[in-house]
């Protein structure tokens, strides 16, 4: 227990903590947007519950990933596969968005939770490694910094998701902006991959722009194709 709290409240500890808080604010934004996107089509009475369950599950995933951060850092191809999965999720969220103005069945509560947990695992890799990297600058206070950083991320993710959900209800076009952000994040993950990243680095800008265009274009095309098929059936 003493080793857990060793080094706390030193000037170096507070300096590292300020960096972790800044990282939480920056890196948790995309997680909050993801949760808001996944919960957007749920019935009103399930949205808050899904945000709470999904957000707490996402933080739990971060805790587990943090414990194995060193191993995750060394795994090749993990971030590349994760980026590909995130691309699929970004397009799926846009396609699921198509039915909000029609009397279709609402999204499933557990389907939303599953989407949040899978995507947050992928997106948390950078968050966890960044947090662990800053915490390692104060070896004696490493674990106390990691614990405090994770605790701080909980309200940021939960309240951030509520905030973005309200924005999306007022400005539906933000759903496309959120999906574009997920496409951009997918490109960043692939370029950071330990197995293939070095070869992809020269094309990072092309991939970032290309993935955003791919997500928006494919989502738009699938939505309009679905509307056309529905019109023919009607």
Distance between the termini: 67 Å
Total strands: the figure is 0
Give the helix level as a range of percent: over 70%
Shape descriptor: globular
- Low-confidence parts: 99-106
Rg from alpha-carbon coordinates: 19 Å
What composes the largest sheet? none
What is the arithmetic mean of pLDDT?
76
Tell me the fraction of residues in β-strands, as a range: under 5%
Structural class of the helices, strands and pairings? mainly alpha
Order of helices and strands: HHHHHHHHHH
* Tally of helical segments: 10
Secondary-structure topology with pairs:
Elements: H1 2-5, H2 11-39, H3 44-67, H4 69-74, H5 78-97, H6 109-135, H7 142-170, H8 174-191, H9 197-200, H10 204-233
Helix pairs in contact: 2-3, 2-6, 2-7, 2-8, 3-6, 3-7, 5-6, 5-8, 5-10, 8-10
Describe this structure in words.
The chain is mainly alpha-helical and 234 residues long. The chain is 82% helix and 0% strand. The N and C termini lie far apart (67 Å).
List keywords for this structure.
single chain; 234 residues; mainly alpha
């Amino acid at each position: 227990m003493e080793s857990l709290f060793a080094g706390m409240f030193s000037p170096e500890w507070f300096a590292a903590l300020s960096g972790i808080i800044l990282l939480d604010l920056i890196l948790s934004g995309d997680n909050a947007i993801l949760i808001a996107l996944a919960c957007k089509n749920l019935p009103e009475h399930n949205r808050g519950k899904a945000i709470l369950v999904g957000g707490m599950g996402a933080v739990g995933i971060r805790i587990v990933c943090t414990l194995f951060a060193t191993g995750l850092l060394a795994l090749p191809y993990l971030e590349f596969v994760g980026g590909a999965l995130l691309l699929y999720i970004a397009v799926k969220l846009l396609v699921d968005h198509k039915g909000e103005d029609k009397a279709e069945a609402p999204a499933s509560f557990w389907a939303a939770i599953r989407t949040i947990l899978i995507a947050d695992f992928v997106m948390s890799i950078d968050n966890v490694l960044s947090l662990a990297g800053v915490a390692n600058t104060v070896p004696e206070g490493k674990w106390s910094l990691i614990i405090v950083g994770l605790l701080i991320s909980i309200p940021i993710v939960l309240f951030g998701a509520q905030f973005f959900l309200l924005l999306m209800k007022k400005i539906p076009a933000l759903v496309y902006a959120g999906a574009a952000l997920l496409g951009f994040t997918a490109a960043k993950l692939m370029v950071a991959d330990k197995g293939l990243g070095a070869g992809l680095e020269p094309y990072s800008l092309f991939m970032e722009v290309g993935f955003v265009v791919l997500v928006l274009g494919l989502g738009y095309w699938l939505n309009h194709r679905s509307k056309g098929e529905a019109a023919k059936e009607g």
